[in-house]
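G., the chain you wanted modeled:
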Amino acid sequence: MKEISVLIGGKAGDGINIAGMVVAHLFNRIGYRVYMYFDYPSLIKGGHNFAIIRAAEGKIGSHREKVDFILALNQDSVEFHKDLAKADTVVVYDNDRVRSEGIGVPIADILKEEGAPPVMGNSCIIGAFARAAGIEWAVLEEVFKKQVRKALEQNLKVARRGFDTAAEKKKIVPLMHDTFPVISGNEAIGLGLIHGGLDTYVAYPMTPTSNLLHFLAAVAEEHEIAVFHPENEIGVMLMALGSAYAGKKTAVGTSGGGFCLMTEGFSMAGMSEIPVVVVLGQRTGPSTGLPTYTAQSDLHFAIHAGQGEFPRLVVAPGDAEQAFSWSSAALRLAWRCQVPAIILGDKTLCEGIYSFDQAEAISPGISPPFEGIPGPGYTRYRITENGISPLLSPPAKDAVIKVNSYAHDEAGITTEKADLVAAMTEKRERKGNFLQQEVNALPSVHLEGTAGNRNTLICWGSTLGVCREVAGNLGLRLVQPIVLEPLPVEALHRALEGPGKVVVVEENVYGQLELLLARNGIRVHGHVRRYDGRPFPLEELEARVREVLA
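Predicted structure as tokens:
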């Protein structure tokens, strides 16, 4: 088999996310590229959790409608996913909690005999799966030794018991390919921020960016990062502004509801010209909505957040490699242009698990910030041709560095004089124009295919993975604007040249990218949208794109 999909399911507390990661690493170890989608309800306890792990020979970033194996730790894992089963799907199940055809594993007896806690049931069923899939024990043992950090020996014993219980049903042929690191989108964002020079990270936990806080806290000492967890999102943004004013490259993490609370501080960043980066992980809204599910419905919010007019950068990476590259770029561009920036992800990207190809994670070159010279003549908001004032951070000898959220003059002194207000507004406008030039000089539009591909698929953010495969299957060009504010209009027009049809794929109901494109003179011929909190499976999107192009 050159491609395989596995679903593992159970209740909260069964360690489904960790188990899915182990299965992903197992596929990675035998030469496959992997992608994992994790689905869980917004409950402290209870509810059905499941992960779909897909492995293939080439690069992937989506799941399929059907799976080859179902690993069931409870009855719901069989009943809820009947529609995912094929005629030859193999069910490996806990025969104490599940009634099904397939391979029953006496997990309760094994755990009791080994004196193991209930959570190790996932190790037992992974062992049984490995045997059923024809994966050698030595391979599974190697993966456990690298990925299981607690009670390794006991987990290995339990896994071996499960392995010995099962029988081979399908043979997964190892591929002679190099292995890749397997990381989450949040980890890729965190690594990108570190690469960009991150000094400080401030966040209040909010799905789907909570794991970014945990990741950066875990590596903070190694990378000399200060990580803070204030009492709420208002405190997060204000602390970040103080940190950035003091010269520390600072980022914050949140989701839509948290960013609502941050918007006044975000506007302050625009007026005070303090660079700060917001990692905004979208989820289904409005309000609390579906806190643990995905959406692409905050694009217009990100572009227009805050009162008044001021430039900002919004980037929307589509996979782990772009998450690394453009998180680094966003931090550096924010400091070069002294603007707030948003890294716009979503639940699918942030919590998705990907094979990470370091050769593709090339961060675009960006010049350093415009540094000021200390001295009594320094003014924080000096009017310049490109709108960007020389930057200094305290302490600076013989220089007063005053920042202000009010309308102000070049020295940062509050003013209500009409000519000064107009001059500083025009300064910010010129800065926005300079930011546009910087964006235009970068590979801010991702293009796959050539003019020979008559029709075109446009996507943004995490739909890149599924759209890439659909475009390849249907012979379409693929166009993905990575920077969404300021929009690289000229590059988009060049990418879309040709007589064919253009179809936009989005996970929102209003077609927010389609509206943004229309506002900039780019008309499309059709669209495909999904807005139920779930990402597109490959087969569904391909069928719907075919309908639009017919």
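The two ends are 33 Å apart (CA to CA).

Shout if anything looks off.
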